[in-house]
Amino acid sequence: MEIVFATHNKNKVYEVQLLVPKHIKILSLEAIGCFDEIPETAGTLAGNAKLKADYVTQNYKLPCFADDTGLLVESLHGAPGVLSARYAGEQKDATDNMDKLLAALENKKNRNAKFETVIALNLNGQQILFNGIAPGEITVTKSGVKGFGYDPIFKPEGYDKTFAELPIEIKNTISHRGKAMKKLLDYLNKLENQ
Ligand code: IMP
Predict the structure, then answer these.
(1) Is the pLDDT of residue 109 over 90?
(2) Above pLDDT 70, what percent of the chain?
(3) Contact 148 CB / ligand 1 (< 6 Å)
(4) 97 Cβ inside 6 Å of ligand 1
(5) Integer Rg of the chain from CA
(6) Ligand 1: which of 37, 52, 71 to mutate, most ligand atoms within 8 Å of CB?
(7) Is the sign of the CA dihedral 151, 9, 93, 119 positive or negative?
(8) Rounded to the nearest 10 degrees, how much is the dihedral formed by the CA atoms of 175, 29, 79, 148?
(9) Residue 187 and residue 32: Cα distance in Å, rounded?
(10) Does 148 score more than 90 pLDDT?
(11) pLDDT exceeds cutoff 90 at 192
(12) Catalytic residue at 186?
């Protein structure tokens, strides 16, 4: 089975590829010749995931899934949330985003946060949503070079290392996206065994 993962983020494709069994082939947007910047104009994670999946279904008529992720910080009332990619501006720069968040949390005792992912799967004319949450906290400084985005400042619950210090195999078992993908794969597995 071939299925499109509607993202231009190579890190996400790499993470997800490690999770899927060999008989499922993940096609990136580049692999199907899609170089468009798909609009993410909805006000919710689910809304943006649907927009991205629907864009591929409508324009390429292929089975596809798309994710949208937000980092929700408790003492910032859930910010940056759905605006996580553009937190420090339209340049969507990971270092700028982390620096802005570390500054916003300066002197804050409560550093609790969670990543939340919603995946929209478009298959056989149906749309199904899967979600995944990874609780943790924002560190005081950046640590680690693995991963992407906010990984160097996010310490998942139960670990004393950031996502950027943990091997990808560990991140995948506890991360927001890994959990949502597991639900999606369980769903596909059930379909195949029907
Ligand atoms: P989007 O889902 O690609 O729109 O991501 C929203 C923001 O969250 C971007 O700034 C991403 O870099 C960041 N992000 C998404 N997933 C992760 C992750 O697994 N770790 C760290 N940052 C992430």
Answers:
(1) yes
(2) 100
(3) yes
(4) yes
(5) 17
(6) 71
(7) negative
(8) 50
(9) 24
(10) yes
(11) no
(12) no
As a whole number of angstroms, the distance between CA 50 and CA 57 comes to 10
158/178 Cα distance (integer angstroms): 17
In terms of DSSP bridges, do strands 2-5 and 112-123 run parallel, antiparallel, or are they unpaired?
unpaired
Length of the chain: 194
For residue 85, give the ligand 1 atom closest to its CA: 10
User: For residue 194, is pLDDT > 90?
Assistant: no
Q: Encode burial over 106-117: b for 16+ CB neighbours within 10 A, e otherwise.
A: eeeeebebbbbb
118 lines ligand 1 (CB under 6 A): no
What value does the mean pLDDT take over residues 45-64?
97
Query: What is the model's pTM?
Result: 0.96
Judged by DSSP in three states, 86 sits in: helix
Q: What is the mean pLDDT of residues 112-135?
A: 98
Q: From residue 42, how far is each of 68, 70, 124, 182 by CA, in Å?
A: 11, 13, 24, 25
Catalytic residue among 67, 68, 93, 186: 68
Whether 63 has a pLDDT exceeding 90, the answer reads yes
Helices (H) and strands (E) in the chain, counts: 5, 7
Residue nearest to atom 20 of ligand 1 (CA): 151
* Nearest CA, atom 23, ligand 1: 149
